[in-house]
Each structure stands twice: as C-alpha cells, then as structure tokens.
Amino acid sequence: GEDVEQSLFLSVREGDSSVINCTYTDSSSTYLYWYKQEPGAGLQLLTYIFSNMDMKQDQRLTVLLNKKDKHLSLRIADTQTGDSAIYFCAESFDSGNTPLVFGKGTRLSVIA
Amino acid sequence: EPEVTQTPSHQVTQMGQEVILRCVPISNHLYFYWYRQILGQKVEFLVSFYNNEISEKSEIFDDQFSVERPDGSNFTLKIRSTKLEDSAMYFCASSRRGWDDYGYTFGSGTRLTVV
C-alpha cells in the first residue's frame, strides 16, 4: 500500500539551511505536498510539486523531487525561529479530491 | 484569508458516549474531509464527502462513524459510541476542485480525549 516516511526530528541553528526529507512508495502519486503545523494550529499548505517537475522554488523554500528514487525534500533557506514546527510530507493521486497520504511529520527545532 | 473552522478545540468524553465534531468549511468549497491523527502517529484519512454523500472512506471509518452536512454550511463527524482508541486530533478539511486550486485547507483540529 501507499506509505510516506520522514525522519522525526531535525534541529538547526538560526540562519542555517534546513533540509527535510521524505520518501514515498506510490509511483502513481501525481502531487506531492509539504504542510506545516505550528503548535495548536491546523495543517498549513506550504508548497506542492507535480510529479513531472524536478524542482520548485518559492522564496526561501526549495522542493526537490527525485521521482526515480521516490524522494522528496524541502529546503528552507535562512531558517528562522518562526520556522519551528512540524512539517508533513503528503502525496495524492489527484489535485484536491482524493485522500492525502501523510508521513508522520518532522519536528523542526530552530536554535537561536 | 478564508478559513476552515472547527469546534470545539478540545473535547473530553466518557467511553461509550456519542460525540459530534463540528466544522465550517470554506463557503465555495465543494469537497469535505475528515482526517485524524493519533498522538505520535500519521495523519490518516477518514472520509471524503461531495454532493451530499460520502465519496470515499477508509477502513477506519466503520459503522461507529457518520458524517453529515445538515444545513449547507456545517459539516459534522459523529462517533456513536466512543472507544479509548478514538482519542486523537480530528482535522476537517475542504477543497475546491479546480485547475488552479491544489491541496486542501485544513482546520485547526479538535482534540478528542476519551476517558
């Protein structure tokens, strides 16, 4: 079945880059997402990438997709304390009306 | 920015009791969902709802669960007879199918504690 795996914890110093990694198993996944969850808040869509893309950049965020290895990464440049949160990788076959399959989330701690 | 609103934020209930979790999706969205996250586990899909009926449900969504859109604005999840293992964070989400709209908008969640 479908599965999404992430490392559970990442700690970085303020100003450094953070790289959060994710692997998935379903090769038919069309859309891959990164969600952010701050304490007490919902899941906020950060960015997404189509499976026919290798890279997507959005300000401080860079998403890299290696479809051959089924590996997705999220790079946050110049990490700030406000970036401390849980980051979820998710995949789906469709753009908005098929279930998302989530990883367990990576807790990013930013040290000042 | 439009939000998905969930109430209550935290609910404590006794085992065997019925609970109703409430959600107000974004007004022009057409698809509605419930997900849950047991502490330390993955966010799991429960059910999707479109055009006043369930369009897809997971194995978790058994006969103890039901969903309803009673009045065109609210979207509810009912658990008929709660079990300890139903303790989790329940997230409502909505989406508008369209070529320029990707992903879902999630609410802040309801933390359900069954004692």
Strand content of chain A: over 45%
Instruction: Classify the secondary structure makeup of chain A into a structural class.
Output: mainly beta
The averaged pLDDT of chain A comes out at 90
Sheet bearing the most strands of chain B, described? 7 strands, mixed
Parts with pLDDT < 50 across at least 5 consecutive residues of chain B: none
Q: What percent of the residues of chain B sit in helical stretches (DSSP H or I)?
A: under 10%
Figure out the total of helices of chain B: 0
Structural class of chain B: mainly beta
Q: Termini separation of chain A (Å)?
A: 40 Å
What percent strand of chain B? Answer: over 45%
Report helical residue fraction of chain A: under 10%
The end-to-end distance of chain B, rounded to whole angstroms, is: 36 Å
Q: Kindly report the greatest chain-chain contact and the residue count on each side.
A: A-B, 24 and 32 residues
Tally of helical runs of chain A = 0
**Apparent shape of chain B:** globular
Indicate the low-confidence ranges of chain A by residue numbers.
Answer: none
Quaternary class: heterodimer
Number of strands of chain B: 11
Largest sheet of chain A: 6 strands, mixed
What is the averaged pLDDT score of chain B?
A: 91
Entry summary:
Chain A is mainly beta and 112 residues long. Chain A is 0% helix and 55% strand. Chain B contains no helices and eleven strands.
Overview of the structural elements:
The complex is a heterodimer of chains A (112) and B (115). Chain A has no helices and 11 strands. By secondary structure, chain A is mainly β. In chain A, the strands form 2 sheets. In chain A, strands 2, 4, 5, 9, 10 and 11 form a 6-stranded mixed β-sheet that branches. The mean pLDDT of chain A is 90. By secondary structure, chain B is mainly beta. In chain B, 0% of the residues lie in helices and 50% in strands. Chain B has no helices and 11 strands. Chain B has strands at 5-7, 10-13, 19-24, 31-37, 43-50, 53-57, 65-68, 75-79, 88-95, 105-106, 110-114. In chain B, the strands form 2 sheets. In chain B, strands 2, 4, 5, 6, 9, 10 and 11 form a 7-stranded mixed β-sheet that branches. In chain B, strands 1-3-8-7 form a 4-stranded antiparallel β-sheet, with no helix packed on it. The termini of chain B are far apart. Chains A and B meet through strand 4, strand 5 and strand 10 of A and strand 4, strand 5, strand 9 and strand 10 of B.
